[in-house]
Every structure is written in structure tokens, then in C-alpha cells.
Specification:
The chain has eleven helices and nine strands. The chain has helices spanning 28-43, 64-69, 73-93, 109-115, 143-151, 153-160, 168-173, 186-198, 202-217, 220-235, 238-251, and strands at residues 4-9, 12-17, 48-53, 97-102, 105-107, 119-123, 127-129, 166-167, 179-181. Strand 1 and strand 2 form a beta hairpin.
């Protein structure tokens, strides 16, 4: 089990995170599967990727249990973040359009996946949280690169430093989410926007995506490398280890 299901429908590839019992948290296997799916989509004629997930949580971020119990938590975290980051760079450099459907909490790297999307549809029950400070680590998933560009520096600091949790309607007001719909409408709404985008001629779609990315994609790969180094280093500190243990004990 990779924790990811992949289904192709014409020029649309549907990806679903399916680790609901773990809050769809990213471990090495799931991050690797996501990286491989993006790589495949770049070469198989896919125009739009729709990313959704099973269960009440969209994605709780990195798998704290897997990172904390690894023989070398810092090395594991670095490898995990780097795998995710390679997929995000591939998306940014390609003509692929990423549509994300968020049904519940998007936290940590799960929030990062949302920030990397080209179009976000959220359920009224969705929430958005950086969540890194609770573990004594810094953000990954492109959060520190993209969040200030989307919401401005002050609001980014409110989310990343003060740990504010956003509801779906506030996330839309802040420019993180495009549409807010009822939970029952989420799947159809994401499918509808994906189908509409996929009808755009491929050359025009690719050119437009790349022009839109010009303002933020420059230096993105280098910034992601700094994020991976920082979160891995902090994951190995005594302070973070204590917070990880508290987090896992609270979750049991």
C-alpha cells in the first residue's frame, strides 16, 4: 500500500490520498508515490491533476510517528521533505494544472499542497493550519515561499508564527481558496473545474501556466532545499523531540 490511488480519465489524472486512519499524513512511501505520479503525469498526456483524499482529514502533514520513531529522525525528515519537494518543483516547472479538493483539515505539508495548487475547492468544513510550531520545527512544502506571496507578510506571520487556524470562508477571503461549497458538492465541483480547464488547448494551457508561475517559480527549488534542511535539523533537536512525544501521546 502506497497510500495513494491513481486513476486516469482522459487528460485528467485523479490522485487520492488514502491513509485516512493516519489523517492522510505523508510518510516516505506516500511522498514517493506522489512524486512518481507527478512524474508520470508529465509524460502521459495529462493536463490536469485533481488531488483529493479519503476520510475526514485532507492531509495532516508529515507522519509524525514515522519521523519520530525513525532510527535517524532528522535524516528521515530530510528524505521525506526532499521527495515531496521534488514533486512540487516538477509541478511548478510543468504545464500541469493542479486542482485540489479539500474536505477537512489541511495542516503542515497538507497546507503546503494547497498552496502549490492552481485552483482550490474547499468544503465548508475545511480548515487550514501551518501546525509546525507545535512540533518545534519550521515549515516545508513551499509554505514559507508561497504563503507571503498569496496572503501578504503580516497574514503569513499570523499563520506561521502565531498558529492561527483558518476556516474555509476566511481562506477564500485571503486568496488561499477559490471556491467554498457544501461537503456534498465538493467532488463534483472539483471535477467540473478540472474538466473545464482540461478543455483548453494544451499549448495554451502550458504557456499560461508557465507565465503565471514566472513571478514565484524563480528560485523555488533552492528555497525548498533550504526548507528541507531546516525542518530536518530542527526535527533532531531535544526540544522538538519532546514536543513530538507530547503530540503522539495526546493523539493516542
Amino acid at each position: 500500500m502506497t497510500g495513494l490511488t491513481v486513476a486516469r480519465e482522459g487528460t485528467i489524472t485523479h490522485l487520492r490520498l488514502n491513509r485516512p486512519d493516519e489523517g492522510n499524513a505523508l510518510d516516505l512511501e506516500l511522498a514517493g508515490a506522489f512524486e512518481e505520479a507527478v512524474s508520470t503525469a508529465r509524460s502521459d498526456g495529462t493536463r490536469v491533476i485533481v488531488l483529493a483524499s479519503d476520510g475526514p482529514v485532507f492531509c495532516g502533514g508529515g507522519d509524525v510517528a514515522a519521523m519520530s520513531t525513525a532510527p535517524d529522525p532528522a535524516a528521515y525528515t530530510f528524505e521525506l521533505a526532499s521527495s515531496l519537494h521534488r514533486a512540487l518543483v516538477a509541478l511548478a516547472e510543468s504545464g500541469l494544472i493542479l486542482v485540489v479538493a479539500v474536505q477537512g483539515a489541511a495542516a503542515g505539508a497538507g497546507f503546503g499542497l494547497v498552496l502549490n495548487a492552481d485552483y482550490v475547492v474547499a468544503s465548508e468544513k475545511a480548515t487550514f493550519l501551518t501546525a509546525y510550531s507545535a512540533l518545534g520545527v519550521s515549515p516545508d512544502g513551499g509554505t514559507t515561499h508561497l504563503l507571503p506571496r498569496i496572503v501578504g507578510h503580516q497574514r503569513a506571520a499570523e499563520l506561521a508564527l502565531a498558529g492561527r487556524r483558518l476556516d474555509a470562508h476566511t481562506a477564500r477571503e485571503w486568496g488561499i481558496v477559490n471556491d467554498v461549497v457544501s461537503p456534498q458538492e465538493l467532488g463534483q465541483a472539483a471535477a467540473s473545474i478540472a474538466a473545464s480547464i482540461a478543455r483548453t488547448p494544451a499549448a495554451a494551457l502550458t504557456a499560461t501556466k508557465r507565465l503565471l508561475a514566472t513571478g514565484w517559480a524563480s528560485g523555488y527549488e533552492e528555497h525548498l532545499a533550504q526548507e528541507a534542511e531546516s525542518i530536518a535539523r530542527l526535527m533532531g533537536t531535544d526540544e522538538s523531540h519532546a514536543l513530538q512525544s507530547a503530540f503522539l501521546t495526546k493523539r493516542r
